[in-house]
Amino acid sequence: MKRRNLLTSAAALAVARPMSAAAQSFPSRPITLIAPFPAGGPTDITLRALAEATSKHLPQPVVVENRPGAGGTLGVVALTNARPDGHTLSQLPLSIFRIPHTQKVSWDPLLSIDYVIGISGYTFGVVVPANSKFKTFRDLIEWARNNPGKLDYGSTGTGTSPHLTMEELALNLGLKFNHIPYRGSADLMTSLLGGNIMAAADSTGFAPHVESGKLRLLVTWGEKRTRRWPQVPTLVDLGYGIVSASPYGLGTAKGTDPAIIRTLHDAFQKGMNDPKHVAVLERYDQDLWYMGSADYAAYARLTYVKEKRLIERLGMMRA
Fold this sequence. Notes:
40% of the residues lie in helices and 18% in strands. The chain is of the alpha/beta class. The protein has 2 domains: 30-121 and 247-313, 3-Layer(aba) Sandwich (D-Maltodextrin-Binding Protein, domain 2), CATH 3.40.190; 124-220, Periplasmic binding protein-like II (D-Maltodextrin-Binding Protein, domain 2). The protein has a 6-stranded mixed sheet with strand order 2-1-3-10-4-11. The longest helix has 21 residues, at 293-313.
């Protein structure tokens, strides 16, 4: 009993301890939110809506900065070079848990980041030009089976969910695709519409082109069909047994004051639930995926191990 009382008293003192001067004055300047993909794509657009909504709940604005390339990992690179004061955050795509297994990097997703909050996830799918010979996804698969290595498809970068899901599918079916990486969705769509590739695996940055009739959506990768395109089957519907949604959230530099992380978490939680942000997510068929800081950090640890298993299975582990 006495030991329990001592522990209770210690906990009470910890709660009562005043915040540091840095935490009390945070934020003292605009907060930079890095979008590790190009301007104009779904990640950029949804993050800008989130930044605008969150800025209402902080004394300084949240400003989005694009750093595309390297499969969406340049945001983490920026965090490793940033001061741990909460003024620099990055969107964290699933690729940050994969790429360290495929190539040598200067950062570690479990040691270089303080996880702030889980935000959303993507709807992925495969699109082809409207005049493509592929009327269904099975048409594409059968053509690839009969023409090994000749199906040119693009994705938003090596090691991203669109890339690895297509490679997992190819491995499962004994096929060979020809992967062409792009810096982001906008570049990928331009190339597909220009006839440079046969198909694209992407998040719903393809939506406007599908709606306008320029592209045909063959399949989506969620657990269930989308609200917008209920006639389009999922990989599960077609019997391929793969689901890919690539949840993402926000992180900041390792070593940031926990009180600052709480401030960021609380502000972004309000921002993510803002009707304007939710409306932009719906435009790209994305749902909210809330995770608190501790749960998101736990998710990161589990996902890092899970993705290593996938990389090993695909034969892509770095030497």
